[in-house]
Amino acid sequence: MPGVLKTETGKGLALSAPASLYVGLLVAAPLAILVAYSFWTQTYVAIDKTLTWANYIEAATDPLVRHLMLRSILIAGAVTLATVALAYPIAYFIAFRTQKKTLWLLLITIPFWSSYLLRVFSWKLILGFNGVMNSALLTTGAIDEPLTFLLYNEFAVVLTLAHAWAPFAILPIYVSLQKIDRAYLEAATDLGCNRLERFFRVTLPLTVPGIIAASLIIFIPTVGDYVTPSLVGGSQGKMIANLMQVQFGAANNWPLGATLSLVAMASVGAVAIGFVVITTALGRRIR
Amino acid sequence: MSDQNIIEISGVEKRFGTFTAVSDLNLDLKKGEFFSLLGPSGCGKTTALRMIAGFQDNDKGSISIDGQDMADIPANKRPANMVFQSYAIFPHLNVGDNVAFGLRKLGLSKAEIKTRVAEALGMVELGGLETRKADELSGGQRQRVALARALVMRPKVLLLDEPLSALDKNLREAMQLEMRRLQQKLGITFVMVTHDQYEAMTMSDRIGVMFAGKLAQVDRPDVLYARPCNRQVASFIGGMNFLQARMVGDGGGQMDVDVQGFGKLTIGVNPNVEIHDTDLLVGVRPEQLEIGAEKPDGYDGYLQGEVSDVAFYGESVHYHIRAAGLDETLAVAVPNYFHTVDHQRGDTVWLGVQNASVIDLGAREHQ
Predict the structure, then answer these.
(1) Confidence check: pLDDT of B101 > 70
(2) Segments forming the whole domain that contains residue B345
(3) ipTM of the modeled complex
(4) Do B101 and A183 count as a contact with CB atoms less than 8 A apart?
(5) Within a domain: residue A46?
(6) Residue A154 maps to which CATH number?
(7) Among partner residues A186, A191, A202, which is closest to B102 by beta-carbon distance?
(8) What pLDDT, in 10s, does the model give residues A194-224?
(9) Looking at the 3D structure of chain B, how many domains does it have?
(10) Is B72 exposed, middle or buried (0-12, 13-18, 19+ CB in 10 A)?
(11) B19-30 sheet: strands from edge to edge
């Protein structure tokens, strides 16, 4: 046994054992249970353990599921797009335009010092009928009556999440910008590029990995988010996770809830893989 | 401007805060010459090159390329291209796209770009490697791609920032010859920055030696070696024994001097030296001293001493000789003709020197 720990493989296995155990127990096992549940059915009082595709058929045919799934992906896509687009200039500024990088990175993490729920409630206060935004606009006379399209819709969900996710987008993009050898930029200038051409032909393609990382970090959890849509989304901002929550809660249909989770996982996986492939290919096309 | 000059630099100064990187730089580079800026690190040679490229603005003075003042012309519009020290091969592009990078801006047809890329890669002996990825290249290949990428733009001036410093010794020596051949074939002016005296000497038509932001001397390699303008230049290029001397008479481009250890010699007045005085500093190259167990015949000055160190270099043997009345040991380099090391530490030997080997370095006070 002591001999095993001396080989490279042995050391590797020993080092990864705690993590493997943890992942096995807390991720793989629940996932297996989820898969099992998705093939069972709920009778009124008990679980019928006969294997069946019934839940999958229901998930595939129910227009509500399809509608919510599509909306979740669209909202998550919008959140991702908005966050990355807003984060890129900030990351660029920190990487290229300031000497006080540590200070700026610290400032960016400050929102995390308060609870996520608190931040979502703050947005409710800002966007609400009698909220900060409406009061300010009413006082200045810009509007005559409060705007109602600010809260309880997709827009509010996108805005709240884009704010919440900002550091997750800024950091990976900052890292990929920071890694760029400044000589590449000078070489591009030397070969005739102005600043804009240099950005699109050198900086942007070299930060594709950072953009992909940021997008996945934001997109994947956003599709499954249910706190934000239930707090600021109203009825038209509901997403697939809200339906899952109902299945596991009020509707007490765990098998259907499990199926919905797996369908959501598969959809998110497919969209994410498609996104990575397309973005990588687009990055390669820039010459 | 003169038709012969491709770059004219006059009175250029560059400061970073309180530090003066380059001061009062005046330099005319001829069309088609291979010019090197040589100096220790931090002497301002790279700053000078970057000012020519346009990556840095000069605080004073003017730079013109091919008769055109560069003051208002940004780096991307200058008729000069650069080979970077790190080569800066774009990692997201393959070899062909790296070389084509600058061409894509010129509105050429696809076929034309392809032809010119192939031509440039052929020039640096990388023909057919267009689709090779950037991270699959060896150090020498990266250097060649960087060269091709700059030359494909057909610049009036090619700027090279320590282009060979990242290569190992054998490859570096091979590339020195190859770059020199390429430069002579193309007839483009090359301006190279280097801290390697041998690199500068083997490749350049002329060398500018820089110390602490100032150009000390500009000359052909052989003139720099034979007639350095002061102690600093003399010791930076090749080995040199420095000796104190006293001027006892002069006239007709010659002067009679009393050289420490060797006695009375008649040496040529060095035209590159600014200030002469009776107290002089003179130099003798190690390979120009004769060494023998017996007093050698036919020399103008002699000195007897003791061997304090022997260093075997392969192609030559270096002896260090300690002699009465000299502050420092004298280095003597003897070519290894017959695989023999003739003198050992502690041997008493004679040194002989010819008048023509003694280099006048000017007033001792002004070194």
Answers:
(1) yes
(2) 239-366
(3) 0.87
(4) no
(5) no
(6) 1.10.3720.10
(7) A191
(8) 999 999 999 999 999 999 999 999 999 999 8
(9) 2
(10) exposed
(11) B19-30, B5-16, B60-65, B68-69
